[in-house]
Amino acid sequence: MNTQANSVPVGEDSIAEDRGYRDSLTKIEPYGIEHIPDVERHGKPRSQFFLWFAAGMNFPLVVLGFSAAYFGLPFWSAVLAILGAGLIAATVMGYLSGMGVRLGIPQQMQARGPLGFIGNLLPVAYVNVFAGVGWASVTVILGGQAIGLLTGMPFWLSALALMLLQLGVAVMGYNLIHFLQRVLSFVLLAGFIFVTVVTVASGKIVNTPNPDAEGFLGVGGWIIFFGYFFSYIVAWMPFASDYSRYLPNSATNRRGAGWFTMLGNFITLSWMGILGALLGSTATSSDTIAALDELMGPWAIIGLGIVALSSFTQNFLNVYGGAISIQTMGVPVSRHVAVVFICIASYLVALWGQHGFYDGFTAFLNLTAYCIAPYVAVLICDYLLGGRRSQQGIQELYDKSRKFEWGFIAWAAGVLGSSPFWISAIYTGPVAAAFPQIGDLSFYVGAAIATVVYLVTYRLPRLSGRPLLIADKEG
Fold this sequence. Notes:
Layout: H1 47-56, H2 59-66, H3 75-103, H4 107-110, H5 112-115, H6 121-151, H7 155-172, H8 174-202, H9 219-234, H10 251-282, H11 288-296, H12 300-328, H13 335-353, H14 357-385, H15 391-395, H16 406-418, H17 430-434, H18 442-457
Helix pairs in contact: 1-8, 1-10, 1-12, 2-10, 3-9, 3-10, 6-7, 6-12, 6-13, 6-14, 7-12, 7-13, 8-10, 8-12, 9-14, 10-11, 11-12, 12-13, 14-16, 14-18, 16-18
């Protein structure tokens, strides 16, 4: 049955109708959190590489690499942390992308299965809506500052211009985002090669620890720095399936989406992080944008232009994912209306947070990942063990009468159990405060606790009273 996009109701349905979207670049995406029907499935797995490659070619990763100087880390020690964190987190991200191909549903909707409708509200409301608004604001701040240095425009105007352009693309949705990410991948590749060459030519490698650095903690500083890069990709994990759910469901496409997603994330995180570490070991300024301006000298206008352009590739995803979060919470609005809300909120936060950016950025990054790590652990366990791959498992994601399930208990246990290990400008847990030399172990402790609690409870009678699902062994 065919219907026009503008006649589609706002409500939820596990069996979406054919709305004729296909691979169109001129139609507004008519789907939100619904299951994507087979007739609408399209695209190739390699699209995941371009999408995440473009998103990763972004200055926030350079900011994180720049913090190696704050911790007094030797250059090659910082590189090891970046590569290790990137490989582990990008592999998990790839697996989540493959789940989107199989289920045809956004990542956050999948979590309604193990957590229940109400149980999923807290992680979605805090983690994902907050993450969508917060990350969009962070990227607008960096892009707006770069445009301001280039043009002399006031920040409010440069940030507004960025946000309006991102609003238009996110409203159009999935197909246009994928198309632009592919184009911008090549543009940013050339641009950041140039920035890297100039930085390497002007920079120097400092491969000795600096005990006089403000944040020097020895091994603990290395673990925290590792966690910064790990948490960067973790913050994307609740959105991985959003951008693969239209791919035709086959074993080949699931594997391909996983590999391409992993490579796109790992390559860019490694490249941008190492570039930031080199920048931090060379520049005299403690501000990353100013340091880039200083180091690139007469070529600064090109470097700042690339930073401004790169803000688009990440914010397309931030705004789009934040809108999916609003729908997942059950708010009865269309996806494109939710996009407008996220954009307005992000712009206002960017205006408020444009000064004192670095401390707020790292605090936000850590606190978000502390909640996401156990969330992702429960999500993967449910996919593997909870029968989620069955038709019944997909359909019950839209059953709002399932208020809570054991997965919510596992998630909450992971968050609370990891809190003594938290390290943040907002809150530092008692274990982390007493033993700063061990660094930040919160992500790993939280995920481990959530996994154990899930394994102990998933065979128990369900809290909703529904019968246990039968696991689908295929794929």
